[in-house]
Amino acid sequence: MTFSLTRSIRFCAAHRLFNPAWSDEENFRVFGKCSLPGGHGHTYLLTVTVSGPLDPHSGMIINVATLRDILRREVFDLLDHRDLNHDVPFLQGLVPTMENIAQKLAERLQPVFAAHQLTLTRLSLAESDHHYVTIDLP
Ligand code: NI
Q1: Which pTM does this prediction carry?
Q2: What CATH number is associated with residue 125?
């Protein structure tokens, strides 16, 4: 029997969808207003699902407070109120789309959860109430 546990965390951050290899016109054609120089902000919602064996002594796969603390340390403390184009070392050189941010967060969180004998099975990142991306991990 496999158990999963899901937890979310919110953070606020700014970004600009802009590929420096392209002209301003090409960026506007692809990214629209999201490419304008002033950037803009989102309240992001990251949701992660981890799975693992049930500890028969605790009756849990991981204490939800531990999961909360991992997300605070690995995500919130690094991304909240940051400029995602410039302030976050592990996002450097990327257009900070939801997809790219989600991929980097998945890569960052996988070994952290593995150290707790957990597998990151799904990660979703929303930048509004209306759209989000999901990564399903094997
Ligand atoms: Ni945006």
Answers
A1: 0.95
A2: 3.30.479.10
| Cβ pair 109, 70 in contact under 8 A | yes
Rounded Cα distance between 15 and 22, Å, is 17
12 is catalytic: no
Number of structural domains the chain divides into? 1
Phi and psi (nearest 5°) for 58? -90, -20
Residues around ligand 1, an ion, CB closer than 5 A: 34
Whole-number Å distance, alpha carbon 114 to ligand 1 midpoint, is 31
* CA 138 to ligand 1 center in whole angstroms: 28
Q: Which residues form the domain of 88?
A: 2-136
pLDDT (tens digit per residue) in 17-55? 999 999 999 999 999 999 999 999 999 999 999 999 999
Alpha helices (runs of H) in 21-92, residue ranges in sequence order: 24-31, 64-71, 77-79
Active site residue 15: no
Question: Is 131 marked active-site?
Answer: no
Q: Using DSSP bridges, classify how beta strands 3-15 and 82-83 pair: parallel, antiparallel or unpaired.
A: parallel
CA of 127 to the centre of ligand 1 (A): 7
Q: How far is the CA of 58 from the centre of ligand 1 (A)?
A: 41
Rounded Cα–Cα distance for residues 26 and 22 (Å): 6
